[in-house]
Amino acid sequence: MNRIVKYAACILLLLLSTRLSAQEIQWETVAPGVWKGTIGKPESYNLLTAVGAKPALEGLKAAGDAAFPLSKEEITAKLRDGKTYLRFPLDKKEQLYGFGLNFQTVHQRGKILQLHVDHYGGKDNGRTHAPTPFYVSSNGYGVFVNSARYLNIYAGSAVLREGKNVPEAKDRNTDKSWSSRPYSDGVEILVPAEGVEFYVFAGPKPLDAVRRYNLLNGGGVLPPRWGLGFTQRVKTLFTASDVEAEAKAFADKGFPLDFIGLEPGWQSKAYPCTFEWDKSRYPDPSGFVKTMLNKGIRLNLWSNPYVSPQAGIYNSIKPFTADHTVWLGAVPDLTMPQARDILFGQLKKSQVDIGISGYKFDEVDGYDHYLWPDVTLFPSGHSAEQMRQTYGLLIQKYSADMYHERNQRTYGLVRASNGGGTALPYVIYNDYYNHEDFITALINSGFSGVLWTPEARASKTAEEWLRRMQSVVFSPMAMINAWSSGTKPWSYPEVEKQVKDMAVLRMQMMPYWYSEFAKYHFQGIPPFRAMNLEDGYQAEVKKEIKTTNLEENPYVEAVSKEVKDQYMAGEYLLVAPMFAGKQTRTVILPKGKWFDFYTGEYAGDGQVITVTPGLDKIPVYVKDGGIIPMGPALMHAPKPSEKVDLEIRYYGSKPGKYMLYDDDGETFNYEKGAYSFRTITVSKDAGGKLKTAVSAAEKGKPNTLNKVSFRAMTK
Ligand code: GAL
């Protein structure tokens, strides 16, 4: 009897605990279309608190309300063994995107990942520069797990014994349809903490979910105009006069240049660093920086954060550093204000105050031998794991604050980021160098709330060089990183003219890029993003299904072939990069008419086209009614008060509208309302004549428009 009672009590407890656990999630509406779920006792240190991310409430409100996109009952959370087990439902026909900056895949359904900040090691396994714990579904919703821990993700790969849609077990010996990866109807996430908070974002479209995620992070970064110009990183050990000569060569050859990056050699010691100028190579840093600024060229400094025992700040920062080193350099605990005051105080005094415009923060991602180990103790008490997941965020945040305090925008480079980092003014780069994979990373950056540059370093052939330069120009940072090669844009004489044309095109497109970044900031729309976020795309891609790793999974019928070599750049452009050795490629045009960017000619509508663009061109297509504002071919970004002429290019025949963003391009005055969106409209009347309008400049707002002309690209 006793045993029966005990047994019954056990069953009851078990039932209760399963039921209870599902009910333990506390739901809160954060903004229209954004909900926070809380389970257990979430840690106070998470991705959002690490950077103090503040939701862009106005943008979230403007994004509109929407119903909760999933069934709350089907979202479950359990606590066991000091860990949180999360489960989110999946439909048969859903595809998943995101889970950070992947380099080889866009489709994530079926994956098993451990999200872990690391240098990308050639496999999409969760170890990457920005392993953002955010995913988006083709069904039009998103989920973000706000944890600064290594997270195990089963993205539709773990099958419950008693799930809603459990496939039948099969006999491998006799049944050819047996699969090692049977269909799963859930995303499961193991969080190594006794509780966590997570967010659910409504659509209705996948892009709406991405927008809401970015806005929860505070909205995308708005770079200074100069950040969207051209940048060259010079060879290590360059001297002040080498740098001046480099700038002169650009000017003499008529190549645009907005900022130069100094690589190791500007500091007296590197790996670990002193954060002090090397006086033999830079005898007069302040004079040098001034000379460069007078030429219209800003400077960006490479550094890693590890403090050399020979650094002037070593003794004072030591108490606020970890017990393990990186290359014998002390690791500042950037969660401690004391460490930040000393490190950033040094950068401010020695560099920012004399006019340095930004930084490239290297080596904050990993390769385990290149970082502190997980057994490291940090004086703040944050674990090595938490520090690893957030160090890139912290260095971005606090260096950006230095500039914010000066009311001066910056735009730099970093090798690690994470969820929470969308608003930070940094672009991710790495040492990997596969052109195709760089483009896939660019696509995935749009799902991860980060920016990525497919930097050009050097190439085996002139053809490859030109192909890489063409991609770089259609990316968040148009950069050559010649730290090791010493390459110049004109290093391959056979393609010098074509490379120059691309650099000039980048400058002409600045009004477009700048407006698209403003949309990233105010509306959360990633300026570079996957085709999967484009209207009319899903409908088109029922052909060529090759996915084989999810045989039993019927969703493959309805969802696209994975496309990882073409992307959307801003509101209207579809970019299809060419890779060395290829003369031809296919391009998938979503539904609706598309036009050639260079000629305005009709290219297709909801179809797969094959193109042979020649060496000079990177294939780019414009949506029907597309409006591309083009500026002059300047050598440097315009100054705050400089007025520029605009040529508004119009494609196709549909009435078009464009929101052109304008502000001073350099300060944070836009945060106080000193900006405007000018409405440009273009349509064709019955006789084919253009009807155009630009809304008047708002009184008291910055206005950098001079003469405006219109050009119908499609005849
Ligand atoms: C690497 C970095 C390169 C370059 C180099 C200089 O870690 O990824 O872009 O800066 O350091 O030593």
UniProtKB/TrEMBL annotation:
UniProt entry keywords in alphabetical sequence: Glycosidase, Hydrolase
EC numbers on record: 3.2.1.177
Hydrolase in keyword set: yes
Name recorded for this polypeptide: Alpha-D-xyloside xylohydrolase
Organism from which the protein derives: Pedobacter africanus
